[in-house]
Amino acid sequence: MRPARPHPARTVVVAFLGAIAVGTVLLLLPVSRAGSGSASLLTAFFTATSAITTSGMTVVDTSTYWSDFGHVLLAVMTQAGGFGITTLATLAGLIVSQRLGLRGRMMTGAETNSGLAHGEVRQVVILAAAVMFATEMVIAAIFTVRLRVTYDVPLGAAAWEGVFNAVQAFNNCGFSLRGTGLSTFVSDWWICVPLTLGVIVGGIGVPVLHEIGRQSRRPAAWTTHTRLTVGGSLVLLAVGFVAVLALEWRNSGTLGPLGVPGKILAAFVQGTIPRSGGFNTVDYGAMNEDTSAIMIGLMFIGGGSASTAGGIKVTTFFLLAYVIWTEVRGERDVVIGRRRIAEATQRQATAVALLGVAVVATGTLVLLGITSGVTTDRALFEVMSAFSTSGLTTGLTAELHEGGQLVLSAMMFIGRVGTVAVASALALNTRHRLYRYPEERPIVG
Amino acid sequence: MRPARPHPARTVVVAFLGAIAVGTVLLLLPVSRAGSGSASLLTAFFTATSAITTSGMTVVDTSTYWSDFGHVLLAVMTQAGGFGITTLATLAGLIVSQRLGLRGRMMTGAETNSGLAHGEVRQVVILAAAVMFATEMVIAAIFTVRLRVTYDVPLGAAAWEGVFNAVQAFNNCGFSLRGTGLSTFVSDWWICVPLTLGVIVGGIGVPVLHEIGRQSRRPAAWTTHTRLTVGGSLVLLAVGFVAVLALEWRNSGTLGPLGVPGKILAAFVQGTIPRSGGFNTVDYGAMNEDTSAIMIGLMFIGGGSASTAGGIKVTTFFLLAYVIWTEVRGERDVVIGRRRIAEATQRQATAVALLGVAVVATGTLVLLGITSGVTTDRALFEVMSAFSTSGLTTGLTAELHEGGQLVLSAMMFIGRVGTVAVASALALNTRHRLYRYPEERPIVG
Ligand SMILES: [K+]
Ligand SMILES: [K+]
Fold this sequence. Notes:
Shape of chain A: globular
Distance between the termini of chain A: 34 Å
Protein name (chains A, B): TrkH family potassium uptake protein
Oligomer: homodimer
Membrane topology (chains A, B): Multi-pass membrane protein
Number of strands of chain A: 5
Bound molecules: potassium ion
Largest sheet of chain A: 2 strands, antiparallel
Number of helices of chain A: 17
Radius of gyration of chain A: 22 Å
Keywords (chains A, B): Cell membrane, Ion transport, Membrane, Transmembrane, Transmembrane helix, Transport
Largest interface: A-B, 101 and 101 residues
InterPro entries (chains A, B): Cat_transpt (IPR003445)
Pfam families (chains A, B): TrkH
Number of domains of chain A: 1
Structural class of chain A: mainly alpha
């Protein structure tokens, strides 16, 4: 055995904790709070965690509790969380996984990798910044004009709300400057479509944007990662849209009162958002049980790797679907489009998904244990929302006592940093064996 | 590519369907039903499915709806399902997986396997019959004496109830000759302990019994399969016991009214049963939300491979826990007690667990979609109970309309035959590639 270096995941964990600490202190300043006095420590901590992890969950009414300065802080923290920290942390994560992958490649002699080489990192960060800036500018401009022209909001206020919402959308966060959220705009295509597209672009992931930028004319040459992410995202968007449209069509609490175009728009928005956006135009708490269960599933899957979205990620989910399919057919290799998926990658995906299930199950149990009168499905929805940094709510978060808020904070943190990364950071340093034990095949199933 | 033989899983699926068809016809005979007329087709089908899959779920009151002849049929079907079909089918499944394993071994040059060679099958069947017969005899004898002496039941009736319950216990089924189930015996150690031990022995699995019989004095020489099953079962029994005892201690609907010894006994029974028994002495429907969630988890895991228990199986669950642990520590091999777990086995476990999740999620969604006024947690409990062939109920099954009963029947069938086996039987015949594609490593998580 040889001693290993400290796990790089610890650096990511510490960076996130540091950012949350700074955010908490800033939100505790009296100037951050509307009216007199300053925020309570827990409220500041929960809100900073929510912003840095780009969840958008709230325990207070964002519009009235925080001052204009506080709102600016939230926008900056969201941006820092979504782009600065998240993207960089995920890039760091990629480097870690490439280091592992490198070891694997040396052992197996594999030919290709995830399509992101070390030297490209600087280039990728610049690209991500450019995409972010351009997307947010377009959304902010449309939002501003629409508010000014149609809703008669003064130009300055309209522009600020436009920028704020653009930042929230691209970063898949869900804070709102209005107490009623965006429900005013439920039938407004000029507001909803740009915001939702912003959520999708922000949630697709830097490596995919990078590759599409380079090779847009040759999808056939895309890496498996890009094909899985793009194809999988389209499937999940369709599932979300059809589920909400079909199951909520006649629900008087959600799509029922809307006209047909309004139903379509609202289904598009509400079907997209669980993939980790955070705003809503209808009440998720009023949805039917089956819609709600599908939303929970979509939240768990989340968006693209190295994106502002959360969840176990689109590639993880679809890769595991291929693993199941391979096993059902009794084939030797997991093959996706003429590429064999490395066994180390399969195991990584298994660990990410199952550890996600374990964390969500534990969080839900703890929440049920420390509260009373909360049903399992509401607890699960809220914990899943936090874990996937979706930030949606059935209304439970606002009612939770301090212990419950801490549980959700922990879920947001673990979900954002990544289950495997958090667990790795907590694990003892690994000593790598230089020998291998004999193989055995226990009976499973 | 070379054409493959038809998948052997189809044989198992057809055998189960045939047994259920025969059972349905027998239960439709007027002589099977108490009073006049005969059972409805759906009731007979549901009950036959429940008996053959050793679930024990009921849509009618077993004690009053079926005649004495019907009760004998249920005992025979339970026995046929639990021992005859289940054990043989599972042995067939083992042969299949060994055939696959053999291919894997030829490729990887692995040294050891699951400890069950082809030539041993006859020996294993005899052993299983002996263990079954001996266990049931002991339980039936204790039960009979106790009923006769303490409850003043006439000897003939006491002996019949003893035999009936012994068959139910060993086969992890849950039919009862009393309308109130076994709640009368909640504080009776002479009744509860033998029945619960019978559930445990029946649910440990033939390969493990076989190996313990051969090598009882050398646990150090046990295969990984036996060590995982025995160790894992002890852990799960402890979790179930502690969870029920701690969380239900003061619940007036469950353990609350009992004295301390009664609480301990009831926690032992109710903590063991979700692993796939089926009887109960307190009402699972009255349990707290968090206890109920833990019971759902225990049902999903289930008992030992090639046993009368259901679920994804103890080895599958703990093997995946080791996979996660290995990934978190960034190690190359999944090592359990100085044995490296084959990558093919890891992938098999992943497929079994995830396909299980997918089936239960789908079943729950369908049940929610076709019923109204059913909460997600109750639907999930009932679907999980059917899938894991546990047969526990919160009371929902008795209220379900025909569509809901069919959903649960499908869940019992899929759960008993095995998700991967059913899916394999449905899949197109596989053509094995004689070449391999280049390897790729998509980013996951
Ligand atoms: K969010
Ligand atoms: K059962």
